């Protein structure tokens, strides 16, 4: 097992806009960057295929970070989907549940992801774990909040007796700001990659092309992404 290096990062890459932007953010800052994805039986599993296209493009030598993108790890976590009654893992309508949370909330998802990512980072010698959670433009998921992530960092470091750092570059950034950050990191080329190759739609719909990318256009994820894209274009135009 390699010793942990502050210049080695592990990015949780789902294939979506946020995690793709976070991958570029990590590549711009750290010398060695690996990625991890999770197959948990999500209905929008098309995002897993998007991961490959994103990685192929960002591994090209003509970006400002040549040679920094390392290994990818895809972990199968079917039990997470089996114990969940979420609209992301079963034929459940997308709505607001009695507890005030959307039915797209997968209980414990980010907690499970971080536990597995931390174990992998420990083995791979990555001091930093980068994830695209946000409590600005989001659906109210409690496991995306800053307090949750800080608590998980404490728990993981106690349990592993190490000094992992959970990096959340988008925590205070809305979707318009995420598009702006992509432009800052990689110009229109990175924005085009986000639009063309990443996936956000909860229904896994890639049959309809919008100016902000592919999706049904009406689910909460599509609405957030579309509204953010329009705000960014208006602000940068």
Architecture overview:
Helix 1 crosses helix 6 and helix 6 crosses helix 7. A five-stranded parallel beta sheet has the order 3-2-1-4-5, sandwiched between helices. It has a two-stranded antiparallel sheet with strand order 6-7. It is α/β, with parallel strands linked by helices and 237 residues long. Helix content is 43%, strand content 15%. It has seven helices and seven strands.
Summarize the helices and strands and which ones pair or pack:
Elements: E1 5-12, H1 17-29, E2 32-39, H2 46-58, E3 69-76, H3 78-82, H4 109-124, E4 126-130, H5 146-160, E5 165-167, H6 175-197, E6 209-210, E7 213-214, H7 220-236
Parallel strand pairs: 1-2, 1-4, 2-3, 4-5
Antiparallel strand pairs: 6-7
Helix pairs in contact: 1-6, 6-7
Main features:
single chain; 237 residues; alpha/beta; Rossmann fold; five-stranded parallel β-sheet; two-stranded antiparallel ribbon; 7 helices
Order of helices and strands: EHEHEHHEHEHEEH
Strand runs, count: 7
At the third CATH level, what is the topology name?
Rossmann fold
Structural class: alpha/beta
CATH 4th-level superfamily? HUPs
**Tertiary shape:** globular
Across the major sheet, the strand order is: 3-2-1-4-5
Give the C-alpha Rg.
17 Å
| Helical residues, percent | 40-55%
The average pLDDT is 90
Regions with pLDDT < 50 over 5+ consecutive residues?
A: none
């Amino acid at each position: 097992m390699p010793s942990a290096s502050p210049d080695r990062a592990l990015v949780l890459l789902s294939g979506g806009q946020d995690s793709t932007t976070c991958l570029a953010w990590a590549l711009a800052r750290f010398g060695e960057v690996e990625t991890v994805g999770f197959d948990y039986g999500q209905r929008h599993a098309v995002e897993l295929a998007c991961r490959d296209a994103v990685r192929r493009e960002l591994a090209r030598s003509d970006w400002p970070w040549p040679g920094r993108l390392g290994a990818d790890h895809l972990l199968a976590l079917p039990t997470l989907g089996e114990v969940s009654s979420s609209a992301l893992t079963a034929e459940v309508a997308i709505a607001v549940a009695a507890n005030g949370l959307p039915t797209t909330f997968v209980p414990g998802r980010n907690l499970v992801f971080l536990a597995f990512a931390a174990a992998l980072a420990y083995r791979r010698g990555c001091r930093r774990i980068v994830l695209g959670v946000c409590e600005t433009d989001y659906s109210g998921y409690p496991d995306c909040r800053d307090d949750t992530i800080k608590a998980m960092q404490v728990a993981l470091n106690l349990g592993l007796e190490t000094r992992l750092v959970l990096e959340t570059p988008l925590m205070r950034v809305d979707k318009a700001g995420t598009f702006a950050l992509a432009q800052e990191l990689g110009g229109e080329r990175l924005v085009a990659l986000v639009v063309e190759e990443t996936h956000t739609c909860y229904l896994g719909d890639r049959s309809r092309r919008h100016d902000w990318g592919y999706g049904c256009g009406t689910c909460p994820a599509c609405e957030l992404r579309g509204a953010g894209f329009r705000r960014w274009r208006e602000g940068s135009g």
